[in-house]
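Progress note, sequence design subtask.
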C-alpha cells in the first residue's frame, strides 16, 4: 500500500501535484482543505466554524480534521493507498494519523516536502485569489498569517517524519511537470 504525505507551505503545489499523482498511481486523494471547503459549501455547523478560522488564515482544531480523515479512511477500506494533502499540519495530527493507520495494519510510506520561497508562495496565492473566490487567497495579510501558522505549527511535522527516516525534500520551484517527475522518482524508491 502506498501512503504518501505531500507536504509544504500554503501554495507550494500540493493540490496541483496530488491531481497528477492520483491519476498515475490510482490513489485516493485526501485533502483536508477540500474536505473543509466541502463542509462550508454544504453550510454545515462544522463548515461555519471552520470558515471563520480559514478566512483568518488560522488552522482548524486538530480534533475536527482528524475526525474527517478517520471517516474517510473507514469509507475507503479497499483503497490501493492514499495521498494526504494538507494533512497532517501539526505534530498531534501526525501522531493521530500513525495511530489510525496502524489500527488498519498500515503505515505512511513517506513524506515528500515541496520547498518554495515565501515570495513565490505569496505571488502564487494572490494570483489564484483573483479567480478562485477563496477569501484566504485574496488578502496579502491573511496569506502572511497562513505562512506564519505554517512556520510555527506545521514545519515541526517534517521532524516527526525525519525521525522515522521517511522524509524527502524536493525543489517546489519549476514547471509542474518537472516537479511531478521529481516526486515520481522519490516514490519509485519506496
Ligand atoms: P489548503 O486547502 O490545504 O490550501 P493550501 O495550503 O493553499 O494548498 P493548496 O493545495 O490549495 O495549493 P497549491 O499549493 O496546490 O488549506 C486551506 C486552509 O484550510 C488552511 O489555511 C487551514 O485553515 C485549513 N486546513 C486545511 N487542512 C488543515 C489541517 N490539517 N489542520 C488544520 N487546518 C487545516 O497551489 C497553489 C497555487 O500555486 C495554485 O494556484 C497553483 O496553480 C499554483 N502552482 C502550483 N504549482 C505551481 C508551479 N510549479 N509553478 C507555479 N505555480 C504553481
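Output:
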Amino acid at each position: 500500500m502506498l501512503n504518501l504525505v505531500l507536504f509544504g507551505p500554503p501554495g507550494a503545489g500540493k493540490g496541483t501535484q496530488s491531481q497528477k499523482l492520483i491519476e498515475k498511481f490510482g490513489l485516493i486523494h485526501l485533502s483536508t482543505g477540500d474536505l473543509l471547503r466541502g463542509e462550508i459549501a454544504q453550510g454545515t455547523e462544522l463548515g461555519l466554524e471552520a470558515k471563520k478560522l480559514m478566512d483568518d488564515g488560522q488552522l482548524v482544531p486538530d480534533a475536527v480534521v482528524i475526525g474527517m480523515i478517520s471517516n474517510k479512511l473507514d469509507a475507503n477500506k479497499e483503497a490501493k493507498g492514499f495521498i494526504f494533502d494538507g494533512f497532517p499540519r501539526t505534530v498531534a495530527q501526525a501522531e493521530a494519523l500513525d495511530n489510525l493507520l496502524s489500527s488498519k495494519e498500515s503505515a505512511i510510506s513517506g513524506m515528500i516536502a515541496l520547498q518554495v520561497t515565501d515570495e513565490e508562495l505569496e505571488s502564487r496565492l494572490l494570483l489564484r485569489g483573483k479567480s478562485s473566490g477563496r477569501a484566504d487567497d485574496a488578502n496579502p495579510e491573511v496569506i502572511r498569517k497562513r505562512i506564519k501558522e505554517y512556520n510555527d505549527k506545521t514545519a515541526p511535522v517534517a521532524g516527526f517524519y525525519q525521525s522515522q527516516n521517511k522524509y524527502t525534500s524536493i525543489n517546489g520551484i519549476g514547471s509542474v511537470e518537472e516537479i511531478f517527475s521529481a516526486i515520481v522518482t522519490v516514490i519509485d524508491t519506496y
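The chain has a mean pLDDT of 97. Work on this subtask will continue into the next period as scheduled.
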